[in-house]
Amino acid sequence: MRLDFSVAVHSLLYLDENRPRKIASRELATSLQLNAVMIRNILSVLHKQGYIEGSVGKNGGYQLIRDLSDINVGELYDLTIPPTISYARFITGDSKGAKASDSTDISANISQTLTDLFTLADEDYRRFYHRFTMTDLKRDLHNHGFFRNLVGQNHPQA
Amino acid sequence: MRLDFSVAVHSLLYLDENRPRKIASRELATSLQLNAVMIRNILSVLHKQGYIEGSVGKNGGYQLIRDLSDINVGELYDLTIPPTISYARFITGDSKGAKASDSTDISANISQTLTDLFTLADEDYRRFYHRFTMTDLKRDLHNHGFFRNLVGQNHPQA
């Protein structure tokens, strides 16, 4: 879900800002204003994927082991929000072809057309996030509007 | 919700295919494989917005009063799926600034940055749908892959 993406982004920005200090998940949770349990799953994913390093014990905690400029925002989006596996519940018609529900073939064929439309739209949506690195987000954090201007320049018609 | 968009698209395609016959909402519902109650709301929106004409009574029913080539898919998307009003539940941090939850200002500022990111991404997402007319969807319905190829041509890198 989308909150997972925000958890990842927020965590990486916080670890970056506090380098080289080791950060306990409880401290991170305080900054995120979420329960520590809610963020552990994502921290574990970030750890497995080699974004952060973690150690337990008295002096334990998480550290960022990559540069923000090397971390693509779309990469984090794909990691935390997997593509929809089936659009069936958003689609009308009789995709099974079980019933001759109308004589126009629309009912039998619209599922494929809408699935293609939604899939391509989602791919396009993900490409948007892939245009940015975490450095862009960090700049915006310190200077709201930076990101908005960046997109405006790429999309003069927007 | 996204199903509303599919209801609108499917209904318009069905009315187009059956011109000039007047179509009862029950017949439409059969093609959509939905309960008639679930589609009346969207039919009412399409009626108010001047896409379809409807009459009640024995010979009543809906008719499409616009050409598919004049109906933009993004227009239907915007009509049936309004933009998210607040991303608050998808965002971490302390946007109210109520607590000095950390010393880095990330917690207080990330809400604005993520809201801008999500808003711009959504605008971009809607632009994708605006690139097509209902004629494109009709062509794909009769020839699956048409739509996929169309996008491929626009996005050679895809």
UniProtKB/TrEMBL annotation, chains A, B:
<dbReference type="GO" id="GO:0005829">
    <property type="term" value="C:cytosol"/>
</dbReference>
<dbReference type="Pfam" id="PF02082">
    <property type="entry name" value="Rrf2"/>
</dbReference>
<dbReference type="InterPro" id="IPR036390">
    <property type="entry name" value="WH_DNA-bd_sf"/>
</dbReference>
<protein>
    <submittedName>
        <fullName>Transcriptional regulator</fullName>
    </submittedName>
</protein>
<dbReference type="InterPro" id="IPR000944">
    <property type="entry name" value="Tscrpt_reg_Rrf2"/>
</dbReference>
<dbReference type="GO" id="GO:0003700">
    <property type="term" value="F:DNA-binding transcription factor activity"/>
</dbReference>
<dbReference type="InterPro" id="IPR036388">
    <property type="entry name" value="WH-like_DNA-bd_sf"/>
</dbReference>
